[in-house]
Amino acid sequence: MPVKDALNLTKAVNGGISDEEINWVLKNNPNGDNYYKAAYSNPSSQRYAISVSGGNEKIRGYIGGSYVRENGFLPQVNYAKYNLRGNVQANLVKNLTLGLNMSTSNGTRSRFNFTYDYESDDLNNLWGKLLYWDVFASPYINGKPNNPGWLGNPIEMMRNGGYWRKDNQQIDALVTAEYKIPFVEGLSVKGTYSKNFDNGYVKTFAKKQQLYNFKKTGPNGLIYTDSLVGTVMSGDPGTPYLGNIYDRSNNYQLNTQINYDRSFGKHTVGALLVYEQFEGFTNNLELMRYNFPLIATDQFLYTSANNADWSTKGGEGQIGRLSYIGRINYDYDAKYLFSASVRRDGSTNFAPDRRWGWFPSVSAGWVVSRENFFSLSKIGQVVDFLKLRGSYATTGNDILDKDDPNSRWRWMEQYIIKDGSYYLGATGTPAPRLDYGGLSNSGLTWEKSNSTGIGVDATIFKNIRFSFDYWKRQSYDILGSRVLAIPIEFGATLPPENYGKVNSHGIEIELGYNNNIGKNFSYNVKGVFTYATNKVIKKDVAANAQDYANPNGKTLAYKYGYQALGIIRSESDLSKLPAGYTINGVAPAVGDMLLADLSGPDGKPDNKVDSYDQMVLGNYFGADNAPISYGLNISMSYKGFTVDALFSGLTGYKIEYNDPWGKGFGGGGKVPVYHADSWSTDNPNGSTPKLYPGGNPHSAGYQWTSTFNVYNGGFLRMKYLNINYKLPDAILNRLSMQDVRVFVAGSNLFNITKFKMYDPEILGFMSYPTSKTFTVGIDVRL
Amino acid sequence: MKNKLNIAILTFSIPFLMMGCNKVLDKTNLSAVGPDQVWSDVNMSTAYLNQIYFALMPGNTSGSGNETDEGVPYQKQTSEWLRGTATIDSWDNFKTYNSIRTINILLGNIDKATFSQADKDKIKGQALFWRAWAYHDLVSNYGGVPLILEAQSPTTDLTTLQKPRNKTSECVTQILKDIDNAIALLPDAFTDSDLGRVDKGVALAFKGRVLMFYASPLFNGLGGIASWQKAFDATKAAKEFLDGRGKGLYSPYNKIWDDELNKEVVMVRRYNYPQAVYFQGGLMPLNWSKDEVGKDRPSLELVNAFPMKDGSSWESQTRSYDTLFSNRDDRFYANIYYNGSPNQYLKGMRDDKTYLWTYFTSITNYSGVTGLEGAHNAVTQDPLWSNSSFYRIKAIDKTIDKGTVYNAAVDWIEIRYAEVLMNYAECANETGNTAAALDVLKQIRARAGVLPGISGNYGITAATQPDVRTAVLKERFVEFCFEGKRMNDLRRWKMFDYLRALPQRHGIAVLLKAGQPDVSPLSDISTVWNRFTSTVITTDAANIAIKDQYYIYAIPKTILDRNPLLKQNNNWGGDFDPLQ
């Protein structure tokens, strides 16, 4: 909402701001975006690529390279990567093809040093903070960085607070050898060995910034004057430091396979046997040195020589995987298609006798349109192509908790060595700690899922393409530890087990039409529609859970909360409530959102709105869980011009207003639209509840998740529009070039949505928005 | 032909040859050890025990003062307890059961361990102590809880894991049994690298604390299980044992938290940056701190409770708040920072060559919704000042500044010898030995720098049992302020009516008189005090409405949902009587 209204609202609710101070802001920072403007620059990116390939029958080669550079929306934030790849394929001995593919890349991600979201690449957290930054403190006064108090000056921090820079070097080598066995036609053996080194190197340098204190005036001391009263070093970083962090991973994958491919008349037969072996080793090392006795410079020589100012950390990990894969396919006259495969995978995440899983799959197809009875029939005149498909596939998952490396060892009892010590002793010694690694389950094994699919592909009247798919998936033996099913007094979770079960199904429909008008104009229109849903069959639940908290029988992405019945607009509304009615422990007041008393400890309403009174608010929460997606792709070309556009949307899902700071009404000059029409005696018809200062229990009406702050998240976005122009052959010939194209592209150009407070596809108000990008480029082939 | 076959064999078999020499799936977790290693090596077992210390040994109770009359709330954000709007979900420390399980695992394995009996006893004694500690944490909040004394094994019939609540009296009996067993096993003292572990003296002192808690009016002895006499015997035993070990009151009072491991330290959590960082966020003035604010700002109620240098009470004085800082006892200066106090207790203050000034240059509203409204002085630029004008000094690291606020290191003394003495005094008074209680009060006050006076009674006028009781509680209020003891004192003596009668906590608005110049950063408050006027202000969002219902907390819904056998307390609408 406008800064003026926000400040007046804050004055009315929280106090502590005078009209004089409000007017100062309106004059000096009318949109409240001083910090945002000082920080923001339009992000951009550039990409260049060049490649050469060629060869003869004996030997073929390829060399290519690319360079990408991206500049972020904040100062000092950028990314640069170059990539080199070379490939040689040689047939030096008859029937034997040897190949070597080497590639290396180096990517450097740079940014300023920001303590508060150290590892985040997209600086989401800082973006969100800039949106809500104090409207009084200008970042610079007379060119000097202002000290806005404890918050620090983020703009000066970005410019002069040091940096964080991560180099990622990858070296990959792939050796292949394929031998066609001469005495059996169609039979070949192949071996591949792929080696991957991944080296991450972070250099981080943090230094304090000099900030200036300015005299403040105004009835509440909020206005900064330009009278300088002193200097101060920034609080961040707490201690200046220089650090190096190394991450190294060293993996290989080894494959050998026997291949058989051959046609006998109308019969085509294929068979494949693969053995796959993977091992990975990782290690990391972190070296930090704090304090610079001379001057803060990004070199270790300048850091403190006192070893109390040094720290190191490190760790290692290892992983292995083995697979055997077999596959056969058969087709008859491209009319009957059949394929079957089976995998046997071994994982280090399970006990030796439980680590292997079988995963078979089959699929079959029937191209009906190739049958004479069909092609000669009346339908066959209209339907040019018709194929029926069916498949059944099984897959497995061996990951219990991807964020916890120790979860890979839960099949055995273990005690984890904790990072960090307990400090004791007369002179003070860090004493090591060992923690029980949780109840183990030696019977733990693969989580599985079975998918069945049927589909139809058809072409009608030559130009209309249609396809339809129905799929169904059963996931079972889902890995997890039950927590709620047992009393908290048990003191731990149950051992991990193959417990959960989820069924899902969905459909996909595609309809396309392409045609030409005249010789030079062609167009193609394609629509896509998908629907997907799921149902939890078996999941951890508390013994006495109320229905809303029981996930069984519900969709995975359901959410619960309170039922909002509307704003209490008058004393008479209030007097209609039962005596002793409380919400969040407090009797509601006029202007509050009335939340419904649905139940209580005895299973019936008790006049207290508390955790017993929640209900299911929707089956699909969040854009990632939208059940319906749809899209429309249009492309047209006229001579050398091509225009390509995609509209796509999601619908059928809900989002909860996600804005932890703004939702609670922190006050100040930046108040989200969420509160713009809040009830007050001056705005008795306000559509949202009355606001209260922080910590007030009446705020439940706008803070708790309820039907009031849950919205339809559906949207339709113009994903991209590309315009491409290819130079006519006549000109190309004259320039002796093969191909020259010029293109202009735009992505995320507009979005049609009912929910207006932020982009419903992103996580929340403070998330970095989906960016609108414009690209121009040229592509030359010699 | 043969050559070709060789190529085929080679291509296909190299990988298998390589596989033969390394076991792809034979991997181990490089950051863990197996159970047989843990229970066969005393150092490993001790490291497991250290995890229990890490989880249960208390640290700074920063912010607990906001919930009692020790402090005022941040920006009038009165807690739901004091507002009277708490619900069954407002207090949950059932996670303590995770530690109980950790301890039970140790107790289930230690007897089978392969190292010496003496080592086993030491470890077992500590574990038993911590189990008593963990159960007391729960029982003192909720009354009886399910007593689980062995790590339960998972079963297919999960209902067998559901246990009903034991009576409060059964739980307290078990707590005392564990403490007694611990006392029998623990060494008199740990030394060298083990100093800081729980020894016999700690267990004896804790036993006194536990018995006194349940003997007090709230639980009223639980039918004799925790009588005042038993509490007296236990506190007396603890006092005599610690006396024998050379423990005592350390002087001066303000050095108790600076001079580590001094003779007053009974139970301690040691801190040192960076291995173990002491949390003191929110305690310091924002000027020299960062991103956490508003904790433990002393209330005027606490400030007024400190006696004068001669032992007389503030209430008996005729002086105005303008000079509240003069002639108070040592504890006042060691705990309370007031406008211009000549105590540069923070590195930031010393670096900036200033004292902390909490006065306003103008005040437009003494009762704003979030506190005073007006302009804070610019000598100390603090955009979010204390609502009472006071700041806590106790147990704050004096060496850290704004940048290093999260690098603090102050040993947190959970049990001081002074507590053992004060527990002893209270129990003595309740068992009719008023003279012993008064003797302790005098020792405490003597150490606090109170003058004995002609009568030698350090200003103490109480003589009867009820008066001495009041005197003891008031002395505890000041002696132990911000050490996390006040709420339990208010609960066990059922003093919520006193809180409601306040009816709000107060602070002082210090205003620079019109026409007076600002002070300089190091002005002497004893000469510039008359530039200011002091006005008493209220600091709560509403009058305190804490309910007697809250003396014993409710079991939250999420906990009840997971165990149908748990009954809610009868003060929260259930059937369980926590006072049995």
Considering DSSP H and I runs of 4 or more, what fraction of the residues of chain B is helical? Answer: 25-40%
Task: Give the tally of β-strands of chain A.
Answer: 38
Largest sheet of chain A: 22 strands, antiparallel
The parts of chain B where pLDDT drops under 50 for at least 5 residues are none
Shape of chain B: globular
Number of helices of chain B: 19
Biggest sheet overview of chain B:
2 strands, antiparallel
Q: What is the CA–CA distance across the termini of chain B?
A: 95 Å
The coarse overall form of chain A would be globular
Indicate the mean pLDDT of chain A: 93
Instruction: Please indicate the percent range of residues of chain B in DSSP E strands (runs of 2 or more).
Output: 5-15%
Identify the CATH architecture of the domain at 42-236 in chain B: Alpha Horseshoe
**Beta-sheet strand percentage of chain A?**
over 45%
Structural class of chain B: mainly alpha
User: What is the strand arrangement across the widest sheet of chain B?
Assistant: 2-4
